[in-house]
Specification:
The longest helix has 18 residues. The chain has a two-stranded antiparallel ribbon with strand order 1-2. The chain is an all-alpha fold and 256 residues long. The protein has a single domain, classed as Fic-like fold (Orthogonal Bundle). The chain contains ten helices and two strands; from the N terminus they run H-H-H-H-E-E-H-H-H-H-H-H. Strand 1 and strand 2 form a beta hairpin. The C terminus is likely disordered. InterPro entries: Fido (IPR003812), Fido-like_dom_sf (IPR036597). Pfam families: Fic. It comes from Limosilactobacillus agrestis.
Amino acid sequence: MVDNTALAQFIASFGSLNGYGSTVAQTKRALDTGNTNALEQDNEDVPIFKDALAGIKAVKKDGFTVDGIININKSFVYSKEEDPAIPGHLRNSMYNSDDNIAITIDTAGKDHYFPPEVVYKADLQKIIDEFKHSAQTKQDAWLVFAKLAKLQPFQDGNKRTALIAANAAYNVWEKENYLVLPFNELDRAEFTINLMRFYGATYHSAENKFFSKMLELLPNDNEQIYHKHINEQKALNPKTVKLKPLFRNGRKEMRR
């Protein structure tokens, strides 16, 4: 029997890569009832929820293989905003200008990472083979995530594809010990910063440095067990308060 709390926790983590706003509790209700009305309806939560389930179903069918990874991305068809124009298509900017991408890797938007112009099935197979020849630990599975995300094999949905693929590599389906991103937003932001640095690294030593920093921010088993039992986020105090952001972006202070 599927543990819907654990699955909901994973979907919320998966969705956090694209601004998913529903709580774990709301996500669990959607899983329990089969009705997405339980989710936040004013953003992309419903399409992301459907993408997550479709991606998991695809990789369960095909396993941690080249076709399995491609079919994860191929199943991302529910979001007009977040999903690739050609799902499952390996990028080839030599004939498709939409495949010519660069990833901003600094907050000022001045530094960019340029992934390979053409991605081949052999590039995916190399990542799979490296995992299969490793000790296949949780750390090795997270390295699958980092390497796939850096490769940027698809037009869009690469980090989400990589997260499901890493879980498939670690074979979480029976024990439901999903690989999830940091729960704390500041930790998740720092994790993302180090992932951007991993993208920009041109030497293995630099990649290893930033990957190690990413690992330090991930929740341990006890944290995952604890968060499985958190059903609702605390509501803000209803009185009007002045919000004072630590990081300024030129906007005026808001009141809630």
